[in-house]
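YM 10:42: Dihydrolipoamide acetyltransferase sequence, as discussed on the call
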Amino acid sequence: MSQAQVKITPLARVLANKKNIDITLIKGSGFNGKIFESDVINYKPSKVADLSATFVDKNSNISASSMMGELVAKREKINFVRKAIAKAMKNSWANVAYVNLKHRVNVSKLWDIRKEIKDDVKAEKNVNLTFLAFVVKAVTLALKEFPIFGAKYDEKTEEIVYPNAVNIGIAVDTDHGLFVPVIKDADHKSVVEIAAEIVSLAKAARDKNLKPAQMQGATFTITNYGSVGSLHGVPVINYPEIGILGLGAIVDEAFYSATEKKLVAGKAMYLTTAADHRWIDGSTIGRFTTRVANLLEKPSLLGVY
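YM 10:58: structure's back
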């Protein structure tokens, strides 16, 4: 069992961390083996655990430079942005029971519609109409049907907390780290309005002009690793959110045409939904991603303005 699967109260987890105790070795006294603070206090490690801890202690002071010997070319200080990212990633992996489902989506119609109207949108609204804007719109509609994906888990009260808004976080890659600005009330905005906000927020992130308020309040996050050419990925949840959607690059692939009864050329994009399996069943994850995929395959349902 991993540490993320262990049932333990927040106070007990903090105490175990302070005492450097592996919580997977503690026998909980609560329902279904849940660990309480008293269980941590009364825990007595076995001889095997003692040997393991001793081994860790003896090796914990080994530095990277001592292991590399004379191979060190330079040292680079970790900036506060990277430290924050590292802390968030570690926190997510430690607290989430991950499950990932991948869908292949035929975005041929979406490709054609965007190609047909993007110049007009640019001329009329001065907005670059991105594929990501359509995905955000599709996700907002799917979240209305599957609100659990926009919820958060409250560790203190042990409750699933549902938001009263649909705020979509967009992962933005910059030269100075990864930032996740938020499109507030995205469900009330058109594809064009979403596209304009994506461009504006991404520019602010790259120019180091993002305000704290612009990175707060996300209820669901989308990461577009397709922008750097990746087809598939395993996105990391922005904890305490309980779901995230990853987008792959759009590529040429063959699809079977039921009407023509043969393989035809098309545009494919792979979606990966990662979710916290403690609170969302695999079947629900599949239905949510299928709904997003269906909306992208029928882009007329999304509108533009």
